[in-house]
Design goal:
- The protein is built from nine helices and six strands, in the order H-H-E-H-H-E-E-H-E-H-H-E-E-H-H.
- The protein is α+β, with helices and mostly antiparallel strands.
- It has a three-stranded antiparallel beta sheet.
- A hairpin with a 4-residue loop joins strand 2 and strand 3.
- Helix 2 crosses helix 3, helix 5 packs across helix 6 and helix 5 crosses helix 9.
- The longest helix has 23 residues.
- The protein is globular.
Length: 205
């Protein structure tokens, strides 16, 4: 791998610092879209052009590199064992976002792979899937759980807010398909089913 890096630096005039900066940027944000800011564009162009090299680099961290040329973004996925090391509420939100994303894409409600929804839509499906009635009066806490997903470019929070909930409108980015894939979704559904069963057994007792 290091021979490959040196060859690229020598033959194509790429600065080693650019490679290091691209690694750092992606490790911090997880995804970078070419439609984003100037740094995102630079990172996408560099990684997409030399994906084999970056695949080797990210494999050293135990990550799988993602390069999506259809919607022009790059990112990485953690090892499968790390999928559920995030808080349970966020795994539930990821699953719900993926369900909504699929429904809207099938209905043709997307623009360049991006789906726009309201906070009410997200809450409605979240409560339907998880029974999260506590959200009726706790919208600010719910929004705080969305911010880490926005930081990772899985969603984008709009400046416009819904009057009813005061939650921002939400752009679900196509990177949700990489994060919440079928294996991830099945794992979360099993967790939810087990929790509901435990709660039922506890009520009966």
């Amino acid at each position: 791998m290091f021979r490959e890096v040196n060859t690229i630096i020598e033959n194509q005039g790429i600065d080693f610092n650019d490679i290091a900066d691209a690694n750092s940027h992606l490790l911090k944000y997880q995804f970078a879209f070419r439609s984003g800011n100037a740094t995102d564009r630079k990172v996408f162009d560099l990684i997409a052009a030399h994906s084999a090299m970056f695949e080797n680099i990210f494999s050293l961290f135990g990550f799988q590199l993602v390069v999506n040329n259809e919607y022009s973004y790059v990112g990485y996925l953690p090892d499968k064992r790390r999928y559920f090391q995030i808080p349970r509420e966020q795994t539930n939100i990821l699953l719900v976002l993926r369900i909504i994303y699929h429904r809207e894409r099938v209905s043709g409600n997307s623009d360049d792979g991006i789906v726009l929804i309201t906070g009410s839509q997200l809450i409605e499906v979240y409560k339907d899937q998880t029974g999260g009635d506590e959200l009726d009066t706790n919208y600010s806490t719910f929004e705080s759980m969305l911010k880490p997903l926005a930081d990772k470019r899985i969603i984008k929070l709009d400046k416009e807010r819904e009057v009813e909930t005061n939650l921002p409108n939400i752009f679900i980015m196509p990177s949700i398909q990489d994060i919440a894939n079928e294996e991830f979704a099945q794992g979360v559904l099993e967790q939810i089913a087990n929790l509901k069963k435990e709660a039922g057994d506890s009520d009966e007792a």
